[in-house]
Design brief:
The protein has 13 helices and 17 strands. The chain is α/β, with parallel strands linked by helices. Strands 1, 2, 3, 4, 5, 6, 7, 8, 9 and 12 form a ten-stranded mixed sheet that branches.
Length: 406
């Protein structure tokens, strides 16, 4: 995914969505079931990436309400920064003791949604690099599947791991083991995109999958950060990647498209490419017309407008650097899942803040029951006759009833 992660994700925020934490804790304490909501594979295929620890994580529930989205791709599970073969979030937070991400998942499921978890990504040390073989790598990932009762998992195999043939053999072997040991598990494999589909290391990864006899639900490419400019370059790369899949696995075009996915970047990419809402619609039309298996993007943390909208020509991990309304790009994932996003009703314009219509209170004036005044940015109503009694100074037993802020 985004090259920005190497720079922006080092400073974890405390802005984890906390909705559902109490419910999750209660479930854990009581031993109550936290079974994942059953969604169709189409939803897991449409799940955009969300970093729950970094890049000012948005409230998943608010996104669900605004767009109709039901599935999220949580990122990223890595090896511990100090080494070892146990899963952590971002290399720092052990999955075994996690409650923060679990609470996010619980809140999503409480609203009828579900999650997939992505392992790997750009930067950081991957479990395929630190675990001794495919079996131990799979055992580490099985802890994640079991902990969160996952129905889907994503292997994001890119720099620098995919340049390590041994690590890639461990990852592909682990994916095959997980697929066998978790019937029905939706497995996606995401890798870098180039103009001819994917580069040399991406092709070697595909050859490794072929040699191990492993076929995931899809192989997805990321056509950004590689000299792409708009949707035409992206759809061309998807066409070329289809040819790569055909030649590697001996598939016909239709079978290759049925195992092909797109993973884009909304707005301004790390290298200064721009992908607008119109570009997303064009790629979505291509994906659906060719019956592709996956349509996702990096990331929901970025699916909101910067201030100023163009972010002064900079790429951000927390906004898109293009003009948009919140969650514009998430709606394309909803469409891919086969659902019409809800129509957004423009909010009514509130009265100007701090503008009081009642006359200002005067210490010399005489007020009788029912008279209203403004004082301290609030409107006050007299309960009985009064003079020179300051609103709010005598508490609930005073003459003045606080009607609230103006």
């Amino acid at each position: 995914m985004s090259r920005l992660r190497a720079l922006l994700c080092g400073a974890a925020t405390a802005a984890l969505a906390t909705a559902g934490l109490g419910a999750f804790a209660a479930q854990q304490a009581s031993g109550a079931s936290t079974d994942a909501t059953a969604l169709s594979n189409r939803w897991y295929a449409a799940a955009p990436y969300l970093m729950p620890h970094d890049n000012n994580p948005p409230d998943a529930g608010a996104i669900m309400d605004a767009t109709g989205l039901k599935a999220f791709q949580l990122a990223f599970v890595l090896a511990p920064n100090g080494g070892g073969c146990s899963p952590t979030w971002d290399g720092t937070s052990p999955v075994s003791s996690d409650t923060a991400v679990a609470s996010v998942i619980s809140a999503i499921r409480a609203k009828g949604g579900d999650v997939s978890v992505s392992i790997g990504g750009y930067g950081g040390t991957k479990l395929g690099q630190t675990c001794s073989d495919a079996a131990s790598t799979a055992a580490a990932y099985q802890q994640v599947i079991t902990k969160y009762q996952l129905k889907a998992i994503d292997f994001d195999l890119e720099e620098p791991e995919y340049e390590n043939a041994t690590a890639i053999a461990h990852e592909i072997g682990a994916a095959k083991i997980l697929q066998q040991n978790n019937p029905g598990l939706y497995v996606s494999v995401t890798t870098a995109g180039t103009a001819d589909g994917t580069g040399w290391f991406g092709k070697q990864m595909l050859n490794e999958a072929k040699s191990q006899g492993f076929t995931p639900n899809n192989f997805s490419i990321m056509p950004f950060d590689g000299g792409f400019n708009g949707s035409a370059a992206q759809t061309s790369a998807l066409t070329n990647f289809n040819s790569v899949l055909q030649s590697t696995f001996g598939w016909d075009a239709a079978t290759a498209y049925a195992h092909e996915g797109f993973s884009g970047m909304n707005g301004r990419s790390d290298t200064g490419e721009y992908f607008s809402q119109a570009d997303f619609q064009t790629v979505l039309d291509y994906a659906t017309s060719h019956h592709m298996d996956r349509f996702t993007f990096w990331s929901l943390n970025r699916d909101r407008q910067c201030t100023p909208p163009d972010n002064n020509g900079q790429t951000s991990g927390t906004c898109s650097s293009v003009a948009q309304s919140d969650w514009d790009f998430a709606k394309y994932s909803v469409k891919f899942a086969g659902v019409t996003p809800p129509t957004t009703t423009p909010p009514t314009t509130p009265p100007p803040g701090g503008s009081c219509t009642a006359a200002a209170w005067s210490s010399s004036a005489v007020y009788t029951a029912g008279n209203t005044v403004s004082y301290g940015g609030h409107t006050w109503k007299a309960k009985w006759w009064t003079q020179n009694e300051t609103p709010g100074t005598t508490g609930e037993w005073g003459v003045w009833q606080d009607l609230g802020a103006c």
